[in-house]
Design goal:
mainly beta; 2 domains; 1 helix; 40 strands
């Protein structure tokens, strides 16, 4: 009997030791260190209220030599937070018992959507994500700037049309989803300092109305896409652009239009008006995916101190005729289309329709790029059509000026300071410096006076 008791006790002690050993081994599978993070603060640039942000992320690293067990991950604002989490493929506000093997990592994706705050100035919205590992808490802060805006929404498929007239105020940004329309015989004025942001594929559309974009040298009207993160700063094609269709006399003055597909598109004209369809001045159009300024089917356009550059195809495109005059304007390559397409392309036909070009005047203008031919003219002239081209004191990158339409033009290098950085000021030895025809355009695109109007600098920018 004693022998049996000893055997039972021995077996029990052995089992206890084995279990204890096993438990120790299991516990030692996990390290006792802490996590590392790719960011201690995740910052969202200005986010418009009621519109979600782009998705950002941070990474959670285990740099220990053993696996780490995260006992809890918690979005501190809970379900009331303006931020939303997706942790390693799971959505929620709280997660438990996550394991990260040694040398491995997890992704935490974050979005934010803000409510209207009733203020004109941006407000800061904050939250944080808490990670609890080995009874210690670590935090990643979440910060977003929230901005109220004027919201313009159209869905033509559902019969929703946002029509506009009167004046857009500049106290808050204007955000366009779908389209903002200026309807037939209506007038919309956009004053200096107004910021306009267009969502993907959106458009500011003037249909047989009058659109006046009227900035000044110190308060430009800014028109761009609605993604304000730094990664979108130079992304072309974020929205369509500004579209004038059979417009009544309209104007754009002192504006910056960037990252569109076609920055300004002027389609035909209202035949009941003899005045200029669009007058555009002191305006920069840049980084358009296709065309900076697109004239189609006979509009009448006057441009002065216009700088168009860094486009995907043409800085200026004229199709199926137009009537246009440009003074002190720069139409430049230096974009993704550089070397394959000219900065300026002009044709008087399209789809078997041939039209007049009663006036195609370029005075004291620059048509240039880093290589290739930057002026292409393709015309058809059956009996009775008018084609009048005049290039006076222009600097044009082309191989020959053996045509009377070119008056005192040259291909000499304008010596821009840094085209790759959008710096189109020029050095003193430039072919633009004090070489233009006498001018009545007293100021340049930046509002600086032209000191010698008898011998002005060629182009939109003074030396």
């Amino acid at each position: 009997m004693m022998k049996l008791i000893k055997l039972i006790l021995g077996a029990a002690i052995f089992a206890s030791l084995v279990f204890s050993n096993s438990a120790c081994k299991k516990k030692n599978l996990f390290g006792e260190g802490n996590l590392s993070f790719s960011n201690d603060t995740l910052v969202f640039d200005t986010v418009f209220t009621t519109i979600g942000s782009t998705t950002k992320y941070f990474k959670i690293y285990n740099h220990q030599n053993k696996a780490l067990k995260i006992s809890q991950v918690q979005l501190m604002g809970g379900t009331a937070s303006k931020f939303k989490l997706n942790l390693d493929g799971l959505q929620g506000t709280s997660f438990s018992d996550l394991e990260i093997p040694s040398g491995d990592s997890l992704f935490c994706f974050v979005e934010v959507k803000l409510s209207v705050n009733g203020q004109n100035l941006p407000v800061v919205v904050e939250d944080s994500v808490r990670f609890t590992t080995n009874d210690e808490d670590q935090y990643v802060k979440l910060v977003a700037w929230g901005q109220d805006m004027y919201y313009h929404y159209s869905n033509t498929g559902m019969g929703i049309f946002d029509t506009n007239e009167g004046t857009w105020q500049n106290d808050k940004p204007h955000v366009i989803y779908g389209a903002a329309f200026v309807d037939s015989a209506k007038t919309l004025n956009i004053i200096g300092g107004t910021k306009i942001y267009l969502h993907k594929n959106s458009i500011l559309w003037n249909y047989k109305g009058t659109l006046n974009i009227d900035g000044d040298y110190n308060n430009k009207v800014i028109i761009q896409g609605d993604r304000l993160e730094a990664s979108y700063q130079d992304v072309a094609g974020q929205y369509y652009g500004i579209y004038f269709q059979e417009a009544r006399p309209s104007m754009i003055d002192n504006a910056i239009i960037k990252n569109a597909t076609a920055g300004v598109h002027v389609d035909s004209r209202d035949a009941t008006f003899t005045q200029t369809t669009l007058t555009i001045s002191n305006t920069e159009i840049k980084n358009a995916a296709s065309y900076g300024l697109f004239l189609f089917d006979g509009p009448k356009v006057y441009g002065e101190n216009v700088l168009v550059h860094s486009t995907g195809v043409h800085s200026l495109l004229v199709i199926q005729g137009a009537d246009f005059t440009f003074n002190h304007c720069d139409f430049l390559g230096y974009g993704s289309g550089e070397g394959t397409t000219p900065a300026v392309g002009i044709a008087n036909y399209y789809n078997n329709v041939v039209a007049d070009i009663p006036n195609a005047n370029f005075n004291n203008c620059v048509i240039y790029g880093s290589s290739g031919q930057h002026l292409a003219i393709d015309t058809i002239q059956p009996g009775g059509l008018t084609l009048n081209f005049h290039f006076r004191k222009c600097v044009i990158l082309k191989s020959s000026f053996n045509n009377p339409m070119f008056e005192n033009c040259t291909a000499a290098n304008p010596l821009f300071i840094n085209p790759s950085e959008d710096n189109f000021k020029f050095y003193g030895a430039s072919s633009l410096n004090n070489t233009g025809n006498p001018s009545t355009v007293a100021f340049d695109i930046n509002g600086y006076p032209r000191p010698d109007l008898n011998n002005p600098d060629i182009g939109a920018i003074n030396y």
